[in-house]
């Protein structure tokens, strides 16, 4: 089976009702991203950070995978599909995809604020005073701005082996994830689905579809099967 690697971003989850990370003014629900998604924000106001992600987690219980998630899962019948996602939701999993790498963390997990290797399932709120087994406060299992991306090297190796790289719903503005596109091999087919200009130079080799995730995947689906 050909290796189909998918790099997904906020645009695919937005169609399920999950708000994208930032809107045009750089705010996230009236919060500066550094206040809720950085080590500095955590040190400044843990309660604010925890409540922010508690709200995200509650919302995630209310939404469902959309047609793009479902069609991507269905492609496993025809391709060796691996998903590298910048998203912290579990919508790819719920749609039935089996190989997903969350490079920015997972909303339904928590970890010790002193040791990110102490990881726990977290379907409900995290409160001040909730402790890991090492006695430290639990925090969201999220890669914040200014933190290392420990799974980036794994993502690079996956992209290097891809026969097809399908980029969906990401502006490719957040690094290091945006750099993954440079790792493809010379004969890899590069397809980008994004309704907006990304400001990223794909070169002549990319097929760019200015569509939403769901419409783009629906349009592309049969064409991908022709490549099996």
Automatic annotation (TrEMBL):
This is NAD-dependent protein deacylase. The active site is at residue 104. NAD-dependent lysine deacetylase and desuccinylase that specifically removes acetyl and succinyl groups on target proteins. Modulates the activities of several proteins which are inactive in their acylated form. GO terms for cellular component: cytoplasm. InterPro entries: DHS-like_NAD/FAD-binding_dom (IPR029035), NAD-dep_sirtuin_deacylases (IPR050134), Sirtuin (IPR003000), Sirtuin_cat_small_dom_sf (IPR026591), Sirtuin_class_III (IPR027546), Ssirtuin_cat_dom (IPR026590). Substrate binds at residues 53, 56. Belongs to the sirtuin family. Class III subfamily.
